[in-house]
Amino acid sequence: MCGIVGYTGPRDAGPVLLDGLRRLEYRGYDSAGIALVTDNGDLFVEKRAGKVAVLTDALGGGPPSAGIGLGHTRWATHGRPSDLNAHPHSDCTGRITVIHNGIVENFRELRDELVAGGHTLKSETDTEVVAHLVEDAYKGDLADAVRVALGRLEGAYALVVMHRDEPQRLVGARLNAPLIVGLGDGESFVASDAAAIIAYTKRVIFLADGDVADLTPGTATITDRLGVVVDRPIDIIPWSAEAAEKGGYAHFMLKEIHEQPAALTAAMTGRLRGESVRLEELDGIRTRLSGIDRVELIACGTAYYASLVGAALFQDWLGVPARSTVASEFRYSPPPIDARTLVVAVTQSGETADTIAAARLAGDRGAVVVAVTNTVGSAITRESHASVFLQAGPEVAVAATKTFVTQVATVVMLAADIAHQLGRLPAETERDLVGALRRLPEQAERAIELSVAAEEIADRYASAAGFMYIGRSFGYPAALEGALKIKEISYLHAEGYAAGELKHGPISLLDAEVPLVAIATRSAVYEKLISNLMEGKARDARVLAVATEGDDQIGRLATDVLWVPDTIEPLSTILAVIPLQLFAYYVAVKRGRDVDQPRNLAKSVTVE
Ligand code: M6R
C-alpha cells in the first residue's frame, strides 16, 4: 500500500525523504509528495500524480533546505490518483500536514461534520479529515492533538503528522498498518518499512497497534492513545542497504530470481539437523501442537499458492484434515476452529490485512496460530503464538519470487517438523526430505542456468493472446504461480488450472493464439499430465512444458521445453516455478512493461 517516511534531525531532510520514497515506491506508486518545514520556518508542500520521478522533476533544483519533513508514495483507495489527492494533506490553517497509509472507514461522517463546522476540505481522500481533526484538537502540543484525533478514527492507519510551529517534532501513530521508528545519532526517522531508512540507521522500534510515537531529533517517546508511556524494544535490522539495491541487474525482479539459491540456503540455515528438520521457533508451543487434529492454512496471492504445498503435506504426513483457504474468504466463512486446530498464516510482508484479520479470528476462537513470514516485527507476528521467518532478505519487486520459493521450503519444513514431533513421519521419508532440501540451493542455481532458453522462448510467446497454465499435484501450485507472474507483470491474461479440469471448460480457450504451459516434471501423475498436454496440442495450441532433465519423450510432445533438475515431488514446485518466473519476466520485458512496479499493484496490501 502507501509508503511513508519522515525525518527530523541535522541532515537536509528533502534528499533523505526523496531517497526514502524511491526505496518505498514498491509499496504504491500512483502519486508522491513531500512536506517540509523549511529553515525559514515556512511549510513547503510539493505533490504530484505519478511516480517519485515526476515529483523529483517538479522539484527542479531540489527541495528547499529543511531539517524536518514527511514523504509519501500512494496506492489510491479513496480518490483517484491526482496532484490534489496526493499526500501530504493539510488543515485549513496550512500549518498541519499529514501522511497516511490505511483507510479511515468513517471519513464521510467525519467529513460532513468538519464541513458543517466550517472546515474546507480540498481533496477526495479519507486522509484529509485527519489534518482537520488535529487542527480542531490542537492546543499547542502536537502529540496531544493527534491522540485526541485518533479517538475519532475508525479503520486502519499508519499516520505521521507535522506542525509548522513545532519544527523539530513528528508524531506517528499506527493501527492495523505498519509503522516503524528509526533511531539515529541525534536524528529520528519514521517509515512504513525499514527499506526507507536502512541507509541511515539499523536501530528501529516496531510500533504496535495503538502506539503513538513522539519524535524529536534523537528522542522517541512511545505512548498509548491515552498518553501513557509504553516500553518498546529496539531491534536491529539484519540486512544491509545494499541488499535492497539492484546490484547491476536490470530489475529487482531479475535480481531476486537470481538470489533464490542463497535465499533457500538462508531459509534452511539452522533448521536441518543431521537427518531431521527442527524449527526451534515451535519449541514454545510443542504441548499445544501435540494435540492438533486439523490444519488450516491462510494466505493471499502468491503466499496462498505456496501454502497449498503445505496443506498437501500436513494432510499426508500428519494424517489429519488440512487445507488452505484464501484469507479473505476464510475470514467471512470460517471453518470450525477450536483449540485443536493449527492455523498457519503465510505472508511475506506480515502486513496483509486479510491474512492478519483471518489469523486474529482463528486466535480468538482458540486455535494455535503459527506465522510464516519474511518480516521480523510485522503485525502477523503479534497475532501468532509462534513465528517462523523465511530469512529470504528484502524483496523489493512487487512480483514475489524468492519469497515464494522460501515460503514453500518453510511450510514443507514446518509440516515435517510437526509430523516428526507427532511421531508420524517415517524416518526414511524425513531422511529423503532432508537430503533433497540440502541439494535444493544448488539445484535452484542449475534451474536458473537451464532457463537460459527462457528469454528466446519468451520472444516467440510474447505476442500470445493469453496463456493457460496446467499442473497436477505439486505441479498445480507452480501452474497457479506461473500464471500469476504473467498476469501481474505482462498484463496478459493467464489462467492457472488443475490439469484434470482442463477438459471441463477452459480447453475451449485454447487455440493457436493461446499457448498451453504444462508443468510436466517427474511425478506420480506425470502420465496423466501428458494426456492433458496432448488434449491441448490437439487444439492447435503451442505447448510450453516445464520438464525434468532426462525426460526423453517430452521433447517430441511439446513445442518448447524449459528444463529443471530432478527432486522429490514436494520440492518440485520450487524448481518448476523458476523457469516460469524467468519466462514471465522476459515476456514482460519484451512487452515493454514496468516489471518492478506493474500497474494497479502494491507490494503489501494493508487494506481489505
Ligand atoms: O505479503 P503477502 O505475502 O501477504 O502478500 C500476499 C499477496 O499480496 C502477494 O503474494 C501478491 O500476490 C504478490 N504480488 C504476488 O507476486
Characterization of this structure:
This protein has about 600 residues and is α/β, with parallel strands linked by helices. The protein has 3 domains: about 5-245, Aminohydrolase, N-terminal nucleophile (Ntn) domain (Glutamine Phosphoribosylpyrophosphate, subunit 1, domain 1); about 250-425, Glucose-6-phosphate isomerase like protein, domain 1 (Rossmann fold); about 450-590, 3-Layer(aba) Sandwich (Rossmann fold). The protein is about 35% helix and about 25% strand. It is built from 19 helices and 26 strands. An 8-stranded antiparallel β-sheet has the order 3-2-4-1-10-9-11-14, covered by helices on one side. Helix 15 (about 455-460) crosses helix 19 (about 570-590). The radius of gyration is 25 Å and the shape is globular. The termini are close together. The model has no long low-confidence stretch (mean pLDDT about 95). 5-amino-5-deoxy-1-O-phosphono-D-mannitol (M6R) binds near residues 303, 348, 604 and 605.
Task: Give a short summary of the structure.
The chain has 608 residues and is of the alpha/beta class. The chain has 3 domains: 3-244, Glutamine Phosphoribosylpyrophosphate, subunit 1, domain 1 (4-Layer Sandwich), CATH 3.60.20; 252-425, Glucose-6-phosphate isomerase like protein, domain 1 (Rossmann fold); 450-590, Glucose-6-phosphate isomerase like protein, domain 1 (Rossmann fold, 3-Layer(aba) Sandwich). The chain has an 8-stranded antiparallel β-sheet, covered by helices on one side. A 6-stranded antiparallel β-sheet has the order 5-6-7-8-12-13.
